[in-house]
Amino acid sequence: MTTENNENILQAPFRVGGITITIVGVGLIGGSFALVSKQKSIAKHVIGVCNREETKQKVLALGLVDEVLPLEEAIKKSDLIYVAIPVDATVPVMQKIMHLVNNQQIVVDAGSTKFVLCDALKNHPMRKRFVATHPMWGTEYSGPEAAVATAFAGRACVICEKDKSDGAAVKMVENIYTNLGMHLVYMEAVAHDTHAAYVSHISHITSFALANTVLEKEKEEDAIFELAGGGFESTVRLAKSNPAMWAPIFMQNRENVLDVLNEHISQLRKFKSALEKENIDYLNELMENANKIKRIIK
Amino acid sequence: MTTENNENILQAPFRVGGITITIVGVGLIGGSFALVSKQKSIAKHVIGVCNREETKQKVLALGLVDEVLPLEEAIKKSDLIYVAIPVDATVPVMQKIMHLVNNQQIVVDAGSTKFVLCDALKNHPMRKRFVATHPMWGTEYSGPEAAVATAFAGRACVICEKDKSDGAAVKMVENIYTNLGMHLVYMEAVAHDTHAAYVSHISHITSFALANTVLEKEKEEDAIFELAGGGFESTVRLAKSNPAMWAPIFMQNRENVLDVLNEHISQLRKFKSALEKENIDYLNELMENANKIKRIIK
Fold first, then answer.
1. Is the pLDDT of residue B158 over 90?
2. CA A89 to CA B110: how far, in whole Å?
3. Nearest Cβ partner of A211 from B217, B283, B290?
4. Is there a smaller number of Cβ atoms within 10 Å at the N or the C end of chain B?
5. In this predicted model, what pLDDT tens digit does every residue of A50-82 receive, in sequence order?
6. CB-based burial of residue A244 (10 Å sphere; 0-12 exposed, 13-18 middle, 19+ buried)?
C-alpha cells in the first residue's frame, strides 16, 4: 500500500466549466457522486443511466442528474462514465461499456471488490481507459434517496492497478477524488480485497449477525426500542444495509471474508471461554488487547 | 416492562435552590451526573467521593464537584448519594453507605447490572431509602475527563424494584432523571439484566472481539488507519471501553451474556455456512431478516 501526498495533485478542476459525466447506477454512491461533482463544478452536465422506469423518475425528481438516457446514447455524450452498481452486475455492464468508449473517454468503477473486475478486464483492448477505484465511504442506506452532497470528504479512495490505466486518465480521476476531499491510497486489486474484508466487510457481517441475535433472543421489541442506547445503535447500524449490494460483495470476496469471519468466531469463543471459566484475568486481557484499537482509530 | 408517561411526573425541581448531592465515583457517569445536576439546578452543592488522590485533584480541577470529602463526612452533608462505581465494588460500598444514611436521605446507584445489588440489599433495614437505577447512557470513554454536560438526555432510565423503595424517594429520583431529559422504564432486576445483555452487553463483546479480529488479521496498521470508513469505526467504537468497568458487568451478568453470546456465535456460523456453500439465497435471507431491525431502531 502506498499513499500519495495530496499536495502533489492539482487541486483545480481539470477543465474550465466542467465535463460531462454519465453515472451508471444512480444510487447511494452514484447519486452522491453526481451531486458532489456538480456542486464542485467538476461536471457541467450529469447523465443518469437507470434500469428501472421508477428510478428514472426518482433521480430526475431528486435533481441528482440533468437527464436520463439509455447507456449507449449516454456514453456518446460523456467524457467520463462512472459505474456504481452491485458488484455482481459490474463485470457484464463494464464489458459492454468498454466496448463503446473511445480513446479520450474514461471509465471509472466504484465497487467494493476489485479483483474480479480487474481480472475480467485485464486483457481488454481498452483496459487503459479504465480506472479501478473504491471510495471508502458509504452509509447503511441505499437507492437515490440515500445520495448526499456531504459524501466522500475526509475518507480514503483506493485506486487499484494504477499502472494498467492511462496516465492522464488516472490523473483526471485522482484530481476528481481529491477535489471531493478524499485522500488517495494505491493498491493491487488482491491486496485491496484482503484489506477490505478486514476493515469493512467483516463489520457488516458482525452487524447483520448482531441484529439477528437480538431479534432472535429479545422477544420484547418494546424493550429493544426503549433500552437501546448509543452502543447498540452504533454496532447494529450496518444491519440496515441493502442485501442486494452486500451479498455480491461477500460472494466475490468469499475467501477473504471467510478467513476473517473464522477469526472473528474464534475471538468470540475466547470471550465465551473466559466467561464460562469465570476467568476475569483472561477477560481483562482480551479487552485490554482490544483497547489497542485506540492507537489506530481515534 | 412498564413505561410511564413523563407528563405525569412533576417537571419542576423538587426543592427551590436545589439539594446537596454526593457522587461516589466521579467518572464518566458520576461526573456527568454531577455536571448536569448542577446545570439543571437540581443540586446546589455537589460533593465528590474519590478513592485516589490523583482523581480528587482532577475532579476539582475539572469543576465537576464543589468539594471532595471522605465518604462518611460527605454523606452527613447530603440529601442524595449517587453511586457510580464499577459493579464489583458496588455491593460492599453500598452496604457501607446504607449503614450511614438516615430516613430522609436517598441512595441511588447507576450500575449496568441490577440483580446482584438488589438481591444483596433486599433485607437491609434501610432498603426503602435505596432506589436502583440504570440510566442507559454511556460512551466508550471513562474517568472524570469523560464526563459531559450533554449526557443522559433522550435516553431511557430503568428503575428496578420500584415497590421496594420509599414512594417519595422514588418520586424524587424520577423527578431528577426526567429533568435530565430521560424517559423512565420500570422493570424487575432479573428482567433488566436479561434485556441489558441483549441490547447493551453483547454489543460490547462483539465490538471487543471485532477489534481483536482486525488486530490479529490486519498486520498493516496503516491499512486500518487509512481505509477504516464509518462502518468499521462505528462497529469497533465500543472496543475502546474500559475493561475495569466491563469485566465486572460481564461477570455479574454471566449467564445472560453467555446465553446471548452463544446465539451470536450461532448466527455468525449461519453466515459462514452460507458463504462456504456459496448459497446466495441463504445469505440474502439472513440479511433480509437482519434488516427487520429497521422497524425498531430508526
1. yes
2. 52
3. B290
4. C
5. 989 999 999 999 999 999 999 999 999 999 999
6. middle
| Residue A283 touches partner B, C-beta closer than 8 Å | yes
| SS3 state of residue A63 | coil
**A153 and chain B: CB distance < 8 Å anywhere?**
no
Helix or strand holding residue A203 (H, E): helix A202-217
A219-266 residue pLDDT tens: 777 777 778 776 888 899 999 999 999 999 999 999 999 999 999 999
Report the DSSP beta bridge partners of residue B133.
B159
The dotted CATH code for A193-296 is 1.10.3660.10
**B183-187 and B67-68 as β-strands: parallel, antiparallel, unpaired?**
unpaired
CA distances, A89 to each of A51, A56, A247 (Å): 12, 18, 12
**pLDDT at residue B149 is higher than 90:** yes
Planar angle of CA A109, A115, A117, nearest 5 degrees: 45
The domain spans of chain B are 2-187, 193-296
ipTM of the prediction: 0.91
Cell of A188: 493491487
CA dihedral B49, B50, B55, B59 (to 10 degrees): -10
3-state secondary structure of A7: helix
Q: Do B156 and A263 touch (CB under 8 A)?
A: no
- Give the pLDDT of residue B297: 82
CA–CA separation, A258 vs A42, rounded Å? 40
For residue range B226-269, list pLDDT tens digits in order.
787 668 888 999 999 999 999 999 999 999 999 999 999 999 99
Whether chain B has a CB inside 8 Å of the CB on A234: the answer is yes
| A183, A204, A214 member nearest B231 (Cβ) | A204
Contacts of B202 in chain A (CB under 8 A): 210, 213-214
CA B36 to chain centre: 16
Tell me the three cell numbers of residue A20: 460531462
B237 touches chain A (CB under 8 A): yes
The C-alpha of A157 sits at a distance from chain B's nearest C-alpha, in angstroms, of 8
Tell whether A20 is within 8 A of chain B (Cβ).
no
CATH class of B2-187: alpha beta
Handedness of CA B159, B161, B163, B169 (dihedral sign): negative
How distant is the Cα of A111 from the closest Cα of chain B, in angstroms?
Answer: 14
- Cα-Cα-Cα-Cα torsion B179, B180, B184, B189, nearest 10 degrees, comes to -130
Place of cell 459525466: A21
Asked if A33 contacts A137 with a C-beta cutoff of 8 angstroms, the reply is no
Cβ separation B158–A227 shorter than 8 A? yes
In the predicted structure, residue A168 carries a pLDDT above the cut 80: yes
Task: Record the pTM.
Answer: 0.90
Measured CA distances, A290 to A271, B211, B265, B279 (Å): 12, 5, 18, 32
Question: Is B286–A224 a contact, with Cβ atoms under 8 angstroms apart?
Answer: no
Q: Which of residues 247-266 of B touch A (CB under 8 A)?
A: 247, 250-251, 254, 257-265
Using CA atoms, how far apart are residues B120 and A79, in angstroms rounded to an integer? Answer: 73
Alpha carbon distance B210, A155 (integer Å): 21
